[in-house]
Amino acid sequence: MTTRSTITALVENRPGVLNRVVSIFRRPGLNLDSLTVGRTDRSEISRMTMVLEGTKADAQHVMRELNRLIHVITVEEMNGTPYVTRDLALIKVGATVENKSEILQMCGHYRARIVDAAAASILIEVVGEEPEIEGLVGLLEPFGIIEMVRAGVVAMARAEHVLDTHCESSSWAEQRRSLSKAS
Amino acid sequence: MQLTGAEIVWECLIREGVDLVFGYPGGAILPTYDTLSSYPQIHHVLTRHEQGATHMADGYARATGKVGVAMATSGPGATNLVTGLATAMLDSSPMVCITGQVPTSVIGHNAFQEADITGVTLPITKHNYLVTSVEELAFCIREAFYIARSGRPGPVLIDLPKDVQIATTEFHYPTDEIRLPGYRPVPEAPEDKIERARALIRSAERPVILAGRGVLLSGAMDELRTFAESTETPVGLTLLGKGCFPEDHPLCLGMMGMHGAGEANHAVQEADLLLAFGMRFDDRVTGNLATYAPKARKVHIDIDPSEIDKNVEVEVGIAGDLKATLQEMMQGLEPIEHSDWIKRIARWRDESEDRELLNQVLQSPELKAAEVVHDLWTLTGGKAITVTDVGQHQMWVAQYYAHSPEHALITSGGMGTMGFGLPGGIGAAMGRPDDEIWVVAGDGGFQMTLAELATAVQEKVKVNIALVNNGYLGMVRQWQELFYEKRYNATPMVSPDFCALAAAYGIPAVRVTERDQIEDAVRQAQAHLDGPFLIEFVVEQHDVVFPMVPAGSDLHDMIRRPRENSPSEKEIQP
């Protein structure tokens, strides 16, 4: 049975890591529905959020293999613990003098912002959980979506549950880091 | 001290304890080779193909427990390492491969002899490096050796652009303890899980130990034996586990799986507890997973946490070092007896003896490969290191050569790499020059890498080659016979006169066609101390490896060798 699994990981911020991570999904032919990578509060550590369409076994396979990668520090599947997800979309829709106010009204319901307005289009930014974004997209479709981009899902557990970036540092890691900066 | 990248390579290898490098030079690695003569501590073995270099490094690693090192140039040199890396990866063999690469300024430009070898080898190495500055080179090499040999061992590749080999830097060898944030090579086995395993062991009536290569890698041979004896638990072996438990021991079941012993497979299927030690439930060991060991609860101990629950879901999965875990587990475990279970297994063993080829009066006069391997075992007193190629002969070595911890089997198990035997044996012989080494290869696999005969001659490697020639790709032919209605497409094989071929290399050789010639030939080989010796055994062409569990079938559903004077039959479930 296919489900959506949200997996978060802390990885070393260095060349090639993304390729190694993505290869784990590619090898058995799994599709990454969403993938985001960005720095954490420590510049040498990045955090990834991956959304996988697949079976539970697929998710377990991916977790096991990700854990084997030398540059992956921690991996967690977001289930069991309550967590928050956010996606962001920029949506450019065709707008006329007549329908503009209707569009603005819809945006209001979704707490979306107008970030640019031109003669024949407006650019809308919306932040929220995936269903919210998809809801707004559905409402905007009749007006003509000219282009759209989504940032991808980021996820974080609520309350005390954390992916700890303050993993112990070592003199080996420090030296290695200073060298790769120098080069 | 200002050194070039090329010099740093050798300085680091020496500090990692390397004295032997198998390799093949070429343009992009030439700066490194150019400085080789300044380091007489390192002996370089020129192979005839880069694949040979990887198998030699792998064979060396398996025979010595040390990290094997192979070196090649960029592009085709590097891509020729691929099969050897995959072979080492699947069998957890520690290896470091160093490849030349085009200069950093043209990487990605399709320069002459450029291949993205870190990209290519990403899924078949434990880790790999593209070194982009000479300053980080020493760190990369030290890390590579650390990763290759720690935890579950594996191959690591270092790709070294030409300009990094030429650039200079102040060399100091980093000696800090290596701590990588995402790498915990030896997980600590949790005490509560060990206690749960003890409880299952105490209550079991029909336990079986499944012992794999992890026993050898962890050095847990003594612990395994003590554990098996004190709990009276029979031990089944994986192909790569052969040697971790003495095969003449009354508790030894022999090999399990597709070509395993009948008693081993029946014991697994009837067991109420499986104790999997340092093995990974490969499909060749389990057969059909849906019907595998259906009555058994399962305990799995492996150093690699990703193996737990991967192929077979277990009641107790313990990620940890096997030796330490077994030591701890045995504390607080009182001796147990299972005499009824042992008696039941003895009946399955009698059945196997009944069907055993060597106990039968043979109808055809032709030499049998099983006789060759059996006699080789007796003539070497079981004290040779056997290195096989892949195919029928490999299974016959597994069945008819009893291995021991000091002389474990060396073979390509996971990858099943034809062509591994000869170079693997050369590497093993160079790692253990005082041991008797026998390469056993078929006519198919031998011809894949026979160019390395010249390497063995050039290096005067004392390696004995038992070439089992049946004129076919025998294992494939066997599948065609049993499962493809005897359509022998592309399996009959014409070969050169192997003795004349050996002579062309200056290698003494004899041909054996009858059983009573075996001893004399083996004694000749043993007496020839100055380089390789080849024996061609011309064996029956249509022999079949029994028992056989067809791929994907239930483990107890074995095709057995017929009893004397009866047609081939499937065994009835006991």
Folded structure, characterized:
The complex is a heterodimer of chains A (183) and B (574). With 183 residues, chain A is α+β, with helices and mostly antiparallel strands. Chain A has five helices and nine strands; from the N terminus they run βαββαββαββαββα. In chain A, a hairpin with a 3-residue loop joins strand 6 (113-117) and strand 7. Chain A has two domains: 3-81, Alpha-Beta Plaits, CATH 3.30.70.260; 85-154, Alpha-Beta Plaits. Chain A starts with a strand and ends with a helix. In chain A, strands 5, 6, 7, 8 and 9 form a five-stranded antiparallel beta sheet that branches. A four-stranded antiparallel beta sheet of chain A has the order 2-3-1-4, covered by helices on one side. Chain B is of the alpha/beta class and 574 residues long. Helix content of chain B is 36%, strand content 17%. Chain B has 23 helices and 21 strands. In chain B, the strands form five sheets. Chain B has a six-stranded parallel beta sheet with strand order 3-2-4-5-7-6, sandwiched between helices. In chain B, strands 11-10-9-12-13-14 form a six-stranded parallel beta sheet, with helices on both faces. In chain B, helix 3 (50-64) packs across helix 18. The radius of gyration of chain B is 24 Å and the shape is globular. At the A-B interface, helix 1, helix 2, strand 4 and helix 5 of A face loops of B.
